[in-house]
Amino acid sequence: MKPLFLALLLSVVLKADETQFFYAPTWVRLTGVIVKSEPEGEATPAGDKKASWILRLPQPVTVNPKEGSADQILETDVSEVRIDAGKWDLAEVAGLKSSVICHGTLSRDVEGDRKRPIVLKFDGYQPVAAPTREIRRSPDGKMFVAWADQQLGPPFGEIRSIFLRYANDQDTLFSVVSSPRDTKAGWNPGSSRCIIADAPDNGGPRTWLVTHESPDVWEWKTRVIEPFGKLEKEFRESDPDVHQLFRCSIFKIEWLSDTKVRFRAWCNTGTYFLTMDTDHPEAPPVEEKLSDEFLKE
Q1: How much is the average pLDDT of 131-137?
Q2: pLDDT of residue 122
Q3: Do 119 and 154 fall into the same domain?
Q4: What is the pTM of this model?
Q5: Domain range holding 181?
Q6: Do 287 and 145 reside in the same domain of the chain?
Q7: What is the per-residue pLDDT for 68?
Q8: How many CA atoms within 13 Å lie on the side-chain side of 156?
Q9: 26 and 165: one domain?
């Protein structure tokens, strides 16, 4: 099963686990939209103290009692939570009219609102950032490399799916699942080769060369390449008794022709141009040292 589709399957399996919460003292993070609720049956003027704040959840959750607790009751299908704002003025947050992540603890109080017995003691919030979704199209528009982030919940956390596809077909020709870090992709002018780098400026990129040998062939071939292989070997051999961590980063991928690609890169020994002939990807790239220092631009 391809990693992208496995990730989507896991998101369905883990959905139930993401909707389980506990009463105080467990600290929780609930995502939803904050709205103002007016008491039913009353024409309450704006600003009336009887109005309250509600967190509307995107899907129902369950609030579980702690084992042995006499005053906590299991609540299922909770879709709205009352907010005990305390010192917080939530008018500005509600004005965003978008999802936020609210922090705090949960309790149960049926006296205030029997329809919404769960109360969140509010301790802060943060806006929900839009998930990363990037596309790098080939020059001829027939192919694209894309990556998208998805939260799968524990124990997987947030993942990034990177994949290569034809623009007019859903079949995935190359895919890999990683973590949400920096990702880069660069196409050659002829749209027949592409470099994909996962975490290129995170201290140790994984890099692939994807090639299309002929327009008459549907499949693309993928191989791992090592732009820093020679530099890393020289670094380790320079002082074999010292086990230092070799760190490297790719700042830019630039195709000089349909077969030659140049990386602007950095490692422990300085900043370089590394030029690779992709007809012979096993050969070490041609090195041009720009500086002993870190030069991103």
Answers
A1: 89
A2: 95
A3: no
A4: 0.61
A5: 133-291
A6: yes
A7: 61
A8: 22
A9: no
Domain boundary among 82, 100, 127: 127
- As given in the structure block, the two tokens for residue 251 are 């700042």
Question: Is the CB of residue 114 less than 8 Å from the CB of residue 101?
Answer: no
- 197/110 same-domain check: no
Rounded-to-integer distance, Cα 4 and Cα 259, Å? 29
Q: Which two tokens stand for residue 153?
A: 């919940």
Dig out the tokens for 190 from the structure: 């002829």
Q: What is the pLDDT of residues 143-155, one digit of tens each?
A: 999 999 887 766 6
Calpha distance 191→140 (Å, rounded): 6
Q: Is the domain of 155 the same as that of 273?
A: yes
Angstrom distance (rounded) from CA 285 to CA 187: 18
User: Contact, 264 vs 250, CB < 8 A?
Assistant: yes
For Cα atoms 4, 201, 243, give the angle at the middle one, nearest 5 degrees.
Answer: 110
Single-letter residue type at 71:
D
Residues in the chain, total: 297
* Closest listed residue to residue 125, CA positions, set 160, 89, 169, 158: 89
Instruction: Tell whether 43 is covered by a domain.
Output: no
Contact, 57 vs 100, CB < 8 A?
A: no
- For residues 173 and 115, membership in a common domain is answered with no
Pair (107, 220) in one structural domain = no
CA distance 252 to 221: 23
Show which of 97, 127, 157 is a domain's final residue. 127
Q: Enter the tokens of residue 68.
A: 């042995």
Higher pLDDT, 272 or 12: 272
CB within 8 A of 72, min separation 6: which ones?
23, 65, 66, 108
Domains held by the chain: number: 2
- 30, 104: one domain: yes
CB 127 within 8 A of CB 100: yes
**In the chain, count of helices (H) and strands (E)?**
3, 18
- Alpha-carbon distance 45 to 36, whole Å? 12
Closest residue by Cα to residue 38 from 86, 106, 94:
94
128 burial (CB, 10 Å; 0-12 / 13-18 / 19+) is: middle
